[in-house]
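User: Hi! I'm working on a homework problem where we have to compare a predicted structure to a textbook description. Could you give me the structure for the chain below?
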Amino acid sequence: MSTHAKRERLLLADLLETAGPDAPTLCEGWTARDLAAHVVVRERRPDAAGGMLVKQLASRLERVMAEFTAKPYEELIRLIRSGPPRFSPFALKQVDELSNIVEFYVHTEDVRRARPDWTPRELDRVFQDALWSRLERSARLMGRGAPTGLVLRRPDGQTAVAHRGTPVVTVTGEPSELVLFAYGRQSAAKVELDGDENAIAKLRESGQLGI
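Assistant: Happy to help. Predicted structure tokens:
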């Protein structure tokens, strides 16, 4: 596992363990138990995980999720902490590097920011750059449902176009916060929105970001 992905994985496991199975998360309708089951299914049941993206597999995913959600919570935490099995594509360093940094960062914040007393973490520049690199690659996918033009901007001026159109809303923040915004956690992301007031309101109300 890559250094960043491993760190976020272990932090997520620790947070889930401390929070307990019934703790809320930023994933609408999911408790910590549901989130833990999702992480485990994604890595250990590729035959079902495809249902996250392919509608025809959704019913299979639902059945497998129910099966894993029913497992002892401590077992789910152990499976997250120990990492993917050797046969999983996520066990490959390159796949882990590409896929899991954002996955585990977002879900770590799903647990952290569901608490009323949360504060932003200070993340090192290397990690911020890694998050930005992945956001640049996926920005148009994440923003495809935006009701307005959408530009994501770092404080240093680097930008990524998430959706072409007018009027344009520019969202400024650290890459970590922009990732959360793009992945549908708009209410918890520490960002600034600039543009036409009606367009900003429309973007905030739409909820059409993320996958």
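For your comparison, note the following. Residues 3-112 form one domain. The mean pLDDT is 89. Good luck with the assignment!
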